[in-house]
Amino acid sequence: MPQASFVKSSTKLIQCPETQLPEVAFIGRSNVGKSSLINMLCEKKGMAKTSSTPGKTQHINHYLIDEKWHLVDLPGYGYARVSKTERAKFEDFISEYIRGRGNLCCVFVLIDPRIPPQQIDLDFINWLGKNNIPIGIVFTKVDKLKKEAELIANIDAFKAALFQSWESLPELFLTSAEKKTGKGDLWDYINSIVKNG
Ligand code: GTP
Ligand code: MG
Question: Which of 28, 90, 106, 190 has its CA 20 to 30 A from that of 137?
């Protein structure tokens, strides 16, 4: 079991912990399951705050793992119920963090595999690519799909959509925070990244 502890909540890059430790961050649409996935990975229920109402995570939250690297829970994008100015402010600090954080080794983009590819996710992934940010794709809540064929079809459609702008695909992971699936593969990958970070 990893040793995980909360470090700090920030709303600006400048407030983030001053450190050279490697860092990986989780992002995705509001309510996609970022905070739940972090709790599942760290085996700490309630460490990252989760909610069935979108927009729960509003800050850049740093967690220290095994005293060696930081895991970061980010606010979700695309939350329709906040005002346009508020959303722009939100997106400003997320993009400032992503582009300006020198020790950021990988951004995992979480995707809901219950629905066909969403433009907002593809735009975000392409923006990360343009900014040369290494990424991984994590499909969440796979337990919610009762029909495996549907899951496969949505994932294939997502891959096809990515191939329109990417020559090779990033690493893909299938997870369920509820059933605790996909944890081993994701840990192995994160460990390999932070070791070389
Ligand atoms: P914001 O911080 O609001 O952007 O949301 P988030 O992406 O951090 O999502 P969060 O982890 O708070 O989860 C949102 C809702 O989805 C909660 O009600 C969770 O219980 C539920 N949820 C998350 N992961 C899973 C999963 O793997 N399976 C199921 N069935 N539900 C999940
Ligand atoms: Mg959250």
Answer: 90
- Strand 135-139: give its sheet, edge to edge: 4-10, 60-65, 69-73, 23-28, 104-111, 135-139, 171-174
Measured from the Cα of 144, ligand 1's closest atom is 30
Which atom of ligand 1 is found nearest the CA of 110? 7
Helix (H) or strand (E) holding 26: strand 23-28
Q: Give CA–CA dist 124/148, Å, rounded.
A: 27
Q: What's 73's DSSP letter? A: E
The finding on whether 81 has its CB within 6 A of some atom of ligand 1 is: no
Side chain identity at 153, as an amino acid letter?
Answer: A
Q: pTM here?
A: 0.95
Distance CA 10, CA 123 (A): 25
Q: Looking at the domain 4-196, which fold is it? A: Rossmann fold (3.40.50)
Measured by CA distance, the residue closest to atom 2 of ligand 1 is 57
Q: For 171, phi and psi rounded to 5 degrees?
A: -65, 140
* Ligand 1 neighbourhood includes 5 CB (under 6 angstroms): no
In the predicted structure, residue 129 carries a pLDDT above the cut 80: yes
Phi, psi (deg, nearest 5) at residue 172: -120, 140
